[in-house]
Amino acid sequence: MGNLVIKPAQRTENVTYAVRDIVVVANEVAKTGKEMLYLNIGDPNIFDFQPPRHIIDATYQAMLKNFNGYSPSSGIKEAVKAIEGEANRKGIDNVLDIFITTGASEAIDLALTSLVDKGENVLTPTPGYPLYTAISSKLQSIENPYYLDENNGWQPDIEDIKRKINDKTKAIILINPNNPTGSLYTVEILQQIIDIALEHNLVIFADEIYDKLLYDGKKHVSIASLNKDVSVITFGGMSKNYMVPGFRIGWGIISGRREILKDYIEAINKFLRARLCANHPEQYAIKPALEGDQSHLTEALKKLTVRRDMTVKMLNDIPGISCVKPEGAFYAFPKINIEQPDLHFVTELLRETGVVLVHGSGFGQKPGTKHFRVVFLPNEQILEKAYNNIARFMEKYVAKYAGAVVE
User: Fold this and answer.
1) Is the CATH code 3.40.50.1390 the one for domain 10-50+295-400?
2) Phi-psi bin for 87: left (phi > 0), alpha (psi -120 to 50), beta?
3) pLDDT of residue 403
4) Out of 77, 175, 191, 261, which could bridge 207 as a Cys pair, Cβ 3.0 to 4.6 Å?
5) Backbone dihedral region for residue 120 (phi beyond 0: left; psi -120 to 50: alpha; all else: beta)
């Protein structure tokens, strides 16, 4: 038969996911017996965070009642109604449609797939969550990154957004609070993005999965609440706010003007019907989560605030590292002043110290800058050990590679 191989689709060539890719190296290092300090995955459940008991009970009861078959494609009625109530509380009172999905990731995938054709583009935040570029690669759309401004607390660079729009641009993605930087966008910035979207008839994809995880008494403003005419899909879910990423329950809330969006809404619903439904029993946790006791958030934020403050202080104390203070989520995105690629830095750090970070280039960044993403979910003892390891390693790394070029 000869050397026959099955050739994968070309669309897979540029699909990378840095958060999981670094784990391949980490697994090699772990086999040597080295103590591992994982600061790479935003999963609260592997640390000292638990979901509220009432949402676990609601799911369990749903299973006992044998709600284990298919649900309606857009989700069960009580959950859809609860999400609409949540949207209203956020000031989104012009909801056109709501759909429940297998995590916010599926909602994002369906929304992009229903809108973007080959050769078109979507403005994508850089740095930003790698899922968006992976989906764009699958759709064979043209990458169109816009930059967040590190010197302005990682707010979107409005002038850069304006420069990047062309006649093939279909949408603009906002991750607010942002992953990987932890930035929270100002109302002024959101208003300017609305103006741009209305002028160019763009859909805004508002990823607000971390909207309840905010520090220092900050308030989250949903971009869809600021204007009734702008076309927005607001993404949310259970994973982060309610500490159940494994439930894989997310949703999309479509708002704007029906006459503009009706065909697009039907396109999304075609895909929803074709893939049948999201996880059924877990949907019964949505109403108690959104309408029930929220005290788990108070406890989580108490812990996270201490860890955020510790992260910012200890990293900023290391020569050659600077860190903008996160205002939401549980990530920081420090800049490293090195000549080598940041992937080289995090790989060498991992091999020598067991500290697992994700390289900034895996999230996109302004050319010429180097960063890493840190997850500050682990307890203070783990963080302190990790940051001390980074400090010692940084000094040796800079001395070793000063003037050297490493590819």
Assistant:
1) no
2) alpha
3) 57
4) 175
5) beta
Q: Cβ(355)–Cβ(390) under 8 Å?
A: yes
In the chain, the amino acid numbered 312 is V
Q: Which residues pair with 123 in a beta bridge?
A: 144, 172
Calpha distance 178→372 (Å, rounded): 15
Q: Which residues contact 54 (CB under 8 A, 6 or more apart)?
A: 288, 292, 293
β-sheet bridge partners, residue 375: 331
Q: What are phi and psi of 255, to 5 degrees?
A: -135, 155
Q: Which CATH class is domain 53-291?
A: alpha beta
Please tell me the distance from the alpha carbon of residue 71 to that of residue 74, in angstroms, as a whole number: 8
C-alpha closest to that of 41 among 296, 314, 376: 376
243 Cβ neighbours under 8 A, 6+ residues apart: 44, 45, 49, 50, 51, 52, 296, 300
pLDDT in tens, 163-209: 999 999 999 999 999 999 999 999 999 999 999 999 999 999 999 99
Listed by start position, the domains of the chain span 10-50+295-400, 53-291
Residue 192 sits at φ, ψ, to 5 deg, of -65, -35
Give the integer Cα–Cα distance in Å for 178 and 331.
Answer: 9
> Which of 109, 117, 278, 141 is closest to 205 using CA atoms?
109
398 class by beta-carbon count within 10 Å (0-12 exposed, 13-18 middle, 19+ buried): middle
Amino acid at 245: P
Q: How far apart are CA 5 and CA 147, in angstroms?
A: 40
Of 377, 117, 61, 379, nearest to 264 by C-alpha is 117
Q: Examine domains 10-50+295-400 and 53-291 and report if their fold is the same.
A: no
Q: What would the DSSP string read from start to end of 37-89? A: EE-S---GGGTT----HHHHHHHHHHHHTT--S---TT--HHHHHHHHHHHHH
Helices of type H across 65-152: 77-89, 103-113, 130-139
Each residue's pLDDT tens digit, 217-266? 999 999 999 999 999 999 999 999 999 999 999 999 999 999 999 999 99
What's the rounded Cα separation, in Å, for the pair 27 and 16? 18
Length of the chain as a residue count: 407
Residue 35 has pLDDT above 70, yes or no: yes
